[in-house]
Structures are given as structure tokens and as C-alpha cells.
Specification:
It is a single chain. This protein has 13 helices and no strands. The chain is mostly helical. Among the domains are: 50 residues, no CATH class; 47 residues. α5 crosses α6 and α7 packs across α10. The protein binds zinc ion. The site of zinc ion has 8 residues, from α8 and α10.
Length: 290
């Protein structure tokens, strides 16, 4: 009954369930008083009818923070450590966290295409996080199995508002029209798949970053041996001439032309041996997408 109350999607529903709770526990007023005075006076912070109006990316509880805090406490052991020990313990936890993040970025960029068979995902495969994909495909099941059509009153824009991702009625329109979900439909949070401290905001800034990276490539090329030089040239060819590398799906396997192939992703596409996932005409693309 308590969980039902917390999971009330709209205020009217919440009020009805609250009345029910009050009636059920009329004989145990101390219990009802506790719930009301300790918890429900701040219902806006945890009842879905209110939290569904906030962009929280799925972080509606403090579980993640508590989990990380717990890991840090275990690593620190006693609270009375030498500064250097404490520093090293925190550094170890942060390094571990960074490695996990990089691994998850990598998984997201090399997502296995057959997990998302519908062609409407073609524009965003490899450009948004795996978790965002899972959330969108769960929402898509509401359309196919839950009977939510393109009536927004049934999905209530909840996923759009709380996660910045296409909600059920929007997905149903994509399905109906046969269009691809555009990359712009996902909030930037889901497209951050690298450890760069900032995203370039202008072409000039991007040009500068490009030159720094290219200078780095040249310096690396000049300083390394023949084997590594071959690898560097191969990597560059994957970008400049994808059709000449094994990472590219041959044109004849593709139904149509499409946006530039993403490194690695096309290998997965090739391995899937499925023409279903051929990249379609794209209308939108990320400025960093290659
Ligand atoms: Zn909707």
C-alpha cells in the first residue's frame, strides 16, 4: 500500500490512495501520523506524481551516492589514516570508477546492433549510451505490448521529462511513420561517451582540438617504430577511407547510403550478417560522429 502510494503517477491518484491508507490504518493512528509527519510532508521529493516532472535521468533515489560512499568507506577502513594513505585510497577508488566509465563508454560506442533490431534506432546506435538504449527499448515495449499509441495522455511525457529521451507516444509515431529517431531527440547527457572534460561549443574550438590531436598523431608517428606506424596509418584509413578496411560493411550489403561509418560498429554490423540493420538515409548527424 505504501509503495502504491509512492508510485502514484498523478496527484488525483495519490490523493485517492492516501485516503485509502488513512482509512485502513484508522485504528493505528500512531502509524498513520508517523507516515504523514515524517514522510508525506515532503512528498514532492519522492512521490512519482511530483518526481515525474523533474529531469533526473532515472536517479530518483540516493542509492548511487550511497553505493559510492560505501565503496570509499571500505577502502578507507579506519577514519584515522595518514594523509597519504587517505589520498591513495581515494585515488584508487576514483581510478577504478574512471576505468568502469571508460569501459561503459566503449560498450556504448560498439553496441551490438542485433540487440536493437528496429531500423528506427539506426541514427543513434553507437552515439548514445547503452543504458539510454535500454530505457528507450523498454519504453518502445509500452507501445507494442502496453497498448500506448500516439496518445500522449497515456504516457504522460514521463520519459521525455524525466530522462530527456523519446517517450512512448513519440516512439509510436516513429514506428508508424517509419522514420528514424534523430540524435537530437536525446538529451546531451546520454551522448557523452568520452572523458573529455568539456565538449567544444563552437567550430573554432573544435578546429583547435582537431589540430592538437593531429599534431599528437604526427608526433606519435615520428617517434614510434615501423609496426606502430602501420597501425597508425590503418587507423587513419578507417576514418578517411572506410570502404578499404575490414571494418566497413561493403556497399552492396547496405541497402542505401548513410552517415559515415563508426569505427568498430560496422564490424559488429558485418558480423551480424543481417541486412536489416543497413544504415539508412540519415537526416541528422552529430558533429563529432565519425
Ligand atoms: Zn509521450
Amino acid at each position: 500500500m505504501w509503495m502504491n502510494l509512492v508510485q502514484s503517477q498523478i496527484e488525483a491518484c495519490y490523493n485517492g490512495r492516501l485516503k485509502e491508507l488513512e482509512e485502513n490504518y484508522a485504528g493505528v493512528s500512531v502509524l498513520y501520523d508517523y507516515v504523514r509527519d515524517t514522510w508525506l510532508w515532503q512528498k514532492e521529493k519522492f512521490v512519482y506524481a511530483w518526481t515525474n516532472k523533474v529531469l533526473h535521468f532515472g536517479n530518483a533515489t540516493t542509492n548511487r551516492t550511497e553505493g559510492v560512499h560505501n565503496v570509499l568507506k571500505k577502502e578507507l577502513g579506519t577514519s584515522r589514516g595518514h594523509f597519504e594513505d587517505v589520498f591513495n585510497a581515494i585515488h584508487k577508488v576514483l581510478t577504478h570508477q574512471q576505468n568502469n566509465l571508460e569501459a561503459s563508454f566503449n560498450r556504448s560506442m560498439h553496441i551490438v546492433v542485433h540487440e536493437f533490431q528496429h531500423r528506427m534506432y539506426n541514427n543513434i546506435v553507437g552515439f548514445v549510451s547503452k543504458h539510454a538504449f535500454d530505457v528507450i527499448s523498454r519504453e518502445a515495449r509500452l507501445v507494442s505490448e502496453g497498448g500506448v499509441g500516439h496518445d500522449f495522455s497515456l504516457c504522460g511525457y514521463v520519459l521525455r521529462v524525466t530522462h530527456g529521451l523519446p517517450c512512448a507516444h513519440e516512439i509510436s509515431i516513429y514506428m508508424l511513420d517509419g522514420n528514424l529517431i534523430g540524435l537530437d531527440e536525446s538529451y546531451p547527457h546520454w551522448k557523452k561517451l568520452n572523458m573529455m572534460p568539456i565538449e567544444p561549443t563552437s567550430d573554432g574550438e573544435l578546429d583547435n582540438l582537431y589540430r592538437v590531436e593531429m599534431d599528437g598523431v604526427e608526433a606519435k608517428y615520428k617517434s614510434c617504430g615501423p609496426d606502430m606506424r602501420v597501425k597508425i596509418v590503418q587507423k587513419l584509413r578507417e576514418i578517411t577511407c572506410p570502404a578499404s578496411t575490414l571494418l566497413s560493411v561493403p556497399e552492396e550489403e547496405l541497402a542505401t547510403k548513410g552517415r559515415p561509418k563508426k569505427k568498430g560498429k560496422n564490424l559488429k554490423m558485418k558480423m551480424s550478417k543481417s541486412k536489416k540493420f543497413a544504415v539508412d538515409n540519415s537526416t541528422k548527424r552529430d558533429s563529432f560522429g565519425f
